[in-house]
Specification:
Blueprint (H helix, E strand, L loop, with lengths): L8 E4 L5 H12 L3 E6 L3 H13 L4 E5 L5 H15 L4 E4 L14 H29 L10 E6 L12 H21 L4 E8 L8 H4 L2 H9 L9 H11 L11 E4 L14
Parallel strand pairs: 1-2, 1-4, 2-3, 4-5, 5-6, 6-7
Helix pairs in contact: 1-2, 1-8, 3-4, 4-5
The protein binds beta-D-glucopyranose (BGC).
Length: 267
């Protein structure tokens, strides 16, 4: 089975809840050792660890803020200490701090850029260093390492009231592609996943509200809001050898949200 992740170690940032938790569990289910990183939700991380242990994979929860360089150095050194190797980084941690532009503070702008973009830079730096040193281990994977950058449909869809978030995700797209181009010759595959409306804590206020949910569904041609597993299965495939020739691509997992649904009629 080429998409088994047995013998590989994965680190998933921000995986105590939401999409990250689903990704960590899916990778564990497919046989990978998984480091569950969290910033503050230790309980959530413990639950994810429990589920992965039930799949028979090795796992541990590690605290660390992706926007803090010292935390990240510690996170990766602990990962190596525990598992000896690293094969997969899922740059997942992300936040929203929404506000109309005229009310958005510098603090809100900086906080989102720090986690959603600089966090990906700091983690990828550590992972690329490790992957280059390790090289390809034929019996494990065709690549020396795989990085998935969690983006969003908002890497291409402008989003009023969320300029910090959309700017960060637009940045993630070019960060991912530029890094992919730079390290592909080292046999490191860097790709992105762009989820659409996936029901998690980040957008609970919208999908829990009757009107908000309807408006959200109007933006999804496929007619349903996504769940973490929709994204997790795509990540699991992207990091497997089945996707070995996929380099520097964003895979949209969005039920068609990026298809300009407003143009279904008219235009
Ligand atoms: C955001 C969600 C939003 C979705 C679709 C995601 O990146 O985090 O809040 O529902 O994009 O707009």
């Amino acid at each position: 089975m080429t998409n088994s992740l047995h013998g590989q170690t994965a680190l998933v940032t921000g995986s105590s809840s939401g999409i990250g938790a689903a990704v960590a569990q899916e990778l564990g289910k497919r046989g990978a050792n998984v480091v569950v990183n969290y910033r503050s939700d230790e309980d959530g991380a413990r639950k994810v660890v429990g589920k992965i242990l039930n799949y028979g994979s090795d796992t541990l929860a590690l605290q660390g803020d992706v926007s803090n360089a010292d935390d990240i150095q510690f996170l990766f050194s602990q990962t190596l200490k525990e598992f000896g190797k690293l094969d997969i980084l899922v740059n997942n941690a992300g936040i929203q701090k929404d506000a109309p532009f005229r009310q958005m503070s510098l603090k809100e702008w900086e906080a989102v850029l720090a986690v959603n973009l600089t966090g990906q830079f700091l983690c990828a730096k550590q992972a690329v260093e490790i992957f280059c040193k390790q090289g390809v281990r034929e019996n494990v994977s065709k690549a020396a390492g795989k990085i998935v950058c969690m983006s969003s449909v908002h890497e291409v869809i402008p989003w009023a009231g969320h300029v910090n978030y959309a700017a960060a995700k637009g940045g993630v797209q070019m960060f991912m592609k530029s890094l992919a181009q730079e390290v592909a010759h080292e046999k490191i595959r860097v790709n992105g996943i762009a989820p659409g409306a996936v029901a998690t804590e980040i957008n609970r206020d919208v999908w829990e509200d009757k009107d908000g949910r309807k408006k959200m569904l109007d933006l999804i041609p496929y007619g349903r809001i996504g769940d973490g597993e929709d994204v997790a299965r795509a990540v699991a495939w992207l990091v497997s050898d089945d996707a070995d020739y996929i380099v520097g691509t964003t895979l949209f997992v969005d039920g068609g949200m990026t298809l300009y649904p407003g143009f279904r009629e008219g235009g």
